[in-house]
Structure formats: structure tokens, C-alpha cells
Amino acid sequence: MMPSFVDILEYIGTFAFAISGIRLASRKDFDIFGAYVVGIATAIGGGTIRDLLLDTTPFWLMKSSYLVWSAIALFFVIIFKKHLIRLNNTFFIFDTIGLALFTVVGIEKTTMMETHYPFWVAIIMGAITGAAGGVIRDILINEIPLIFRKEIYALACVIGGLFYYISLQIFDNLIIVQIISAASVFLTRLIAVAFHVGLPHIRTLEHEEESSRRKMM
């Protein structure tokens, strides 16, 4: 049986996310098994949370291919380690690819459920599928999750979900809709990192209020 376009997106996303997790684990001097665990957690973490929330069997329990793709990612990092180290933006590239593709997969899987959820649920599930694996990865390597401290991350998934919904009203071809949605996530993240675009920090707001008070005194 030929894999669907969504399956292909999921396999590529699994590979990309696993590489991002393994790459960070190697920086922390994890052994091969530890790096593989971090890679798997990054790749399947978001989708597992999504499936549990939607009350369905986690996707990777039905197919071993996701574990295989994570293993392939591990060997890829081992073989091309020297080249990956030279590329400072390796983590960003693979993480962003995984984020974009998994957002689309999360939305698709939610809309295909027998329970007809409203589309805002699909957008949330897309964001969880895309971003939650990265949160698990960062916790495992003892880092503050990227989603809480850097440029726009999970919000890029929400933007991708909105583009999916709008494109669905315009185009009949679902593949075009999926490509537009994934591209919007990728470009949003790219622009956010390139121009350091992020949401205001609570601490920053407190400093601004304190500065305003001092000026008034």
C-alpha cells in the first residue's frame, strides 16, 4: 500500500525532528542510546500527546516505521557528524522542518477523526503535535524549553493552522492547502529568528512599569 501525502510528511517530520533532538543530545555528551531516546521523544512526543487527548491509540504503537526513521536519523548524525557540526544552523533547519510538517499532520489527523471537532481544536492539536516534542526534548536535556524563552515557536504553528483554514476555503486541492500551511509555519519561524521577533516577556513588562514610575517621581 502506497503511503499517503500525510504519511510522507509525517516520515520526513519524524526524521527531521529526531535529528534535531539527537543533535542537541550530542552537544550534552549523551551516549548513543541516550541520544536515540531524545530523538524518539522529540519525534513522537507531540503526536503522542495529541492522540491521548483525542482518545485514540498513539500513532507509533500501530507502526514501527517511526522508530525506524528515528534510528536512521541517529545513523545519519553519526555518519555526517563533522558536516553537521560545521553548520551552526543545523538544529534550526531540522527543527523548523519538523515543526512545519508536524503542524500539518496534527491538523490533518484531527480533521479525519470520526468525532467532528471544530476547527479551532484542529489548530490546537496541530500546535501540540508540532511544539510539544521539542518541549519534551528540552526537558530531557535539562534546558529551559525553547517554546518559553526564544523567538516565536508555538505561535508559528497557530499561524500555520490559520493559513490551513483560509487556504481550505480557497483551494480544492488538499495537497496545496497542506503545502501552504507548512510553508507559513516555516517562513514565520524563519522571519522570527532572522529578525528576533518574539512575544513580550513578563519581566520586561515589569521593568517598563518600574521605569515609568521612576520617571513620574
Question: How do the helices and strands line up, and which of them pair or pack?
Answer:
Elements (H helix, E strand, L loop, with lengths): L4 H23 L4 H22 L11 H15 L1 H6 L3 H22 L7 H22 L5 H4 L4 H17 L3 H21 L7 H15 L1
Short description:
This protein is mostly helical and 217 residues long.
The string of secondary-structure elements, in order, is HHHHHHHHHH
pLDDT averaged residue by residue = 89
In percent, how helical is the residue content?
A: over 70%
Outline: globular
Number of H/I helices? 10
SS-derived structural category: mainly alpha
Domain count, please report it: 1
How is the biggest beta sheet arranged? Answer: none
What low-confidence regions span 5 or more consecutive residues with pLDDT below 50? none
> Beta-strand level of the residues, as a percent range?
under 5%
Structure in words:
There is one protein chain. The protein is built from ten helices and no strands. The chain is an all-alpha fold. The protein has one domain. The longest helix is centred in the N-terminal third of the chain and has 23 residues, at 5-27. The relative contact order is 0.13.
